[in-house]
Amino acid sequence: QVQLVESGGGLVQAGGSLKLSCAASGRTASIYVMGWFRQAPGKEREFVASITWNGSGTYYADSVKGRFTISRDNAKNTVSLQMNSLKPEDTAVYSCAARGSPVQTYNVWGQGTQVTVSS
């Protein structure tokens, strides 16, 4: 079993930056892809970014391309999301997730961390 724990959320002014981290533990060898998702109040959860566990591929939602960067720290089994040029519409609960194959759905989720961007 894999466990995921996020950290790094908070309150920031528009134009500012935050870095989220997701620490993976347990059977990390079973992870194929790690992703970040977000859910704003009254809206559906949406994909933000993902990275293959070996770091070979990254993918971003159009809304965050050029502003957010996903990366992986092999030694710490951690995936980070560097968020720059934040906008009020980035306000949401951000969750990391993992899946075990290219065709599998994300089936392990962290508890989520709140990101609030003030205007």
The oligomeric state of the chains shown is: single chain
How many helical stretches?
0
Element-level helix/strand string = EEEEEEEEEEE
* Mass-distribution shape: globular
Number of DSSP-assigned strands: 11
Rounded average pLDDT: 95
Radius of gyration: 13 Å
Distance between the termini: 40 Å
Strand content: over 45%
Biggest sheet architecture: 7 strands, mixed
Question: Helical proportion?
Answer: under 10%
What structural category arises from helix and sheet content? mainly beta
List keywords for this structure.
seven-stranded mixed β-sheet; four-stranded antiparallel β-sheet
Descriptive overview:
- With 119 residues, this protein is mainly β.
- Helices cover 0% and strands 54% of the residues.
- The chain is built from no helices and 11 strands.
- Strands 2, 4, 5, 6, 9, 10 and 11 form a 7-stranded mixed beta sheet that branches.
- It is globular and about 40 Å long.
- The chain starts with a strand and ends with a strand.
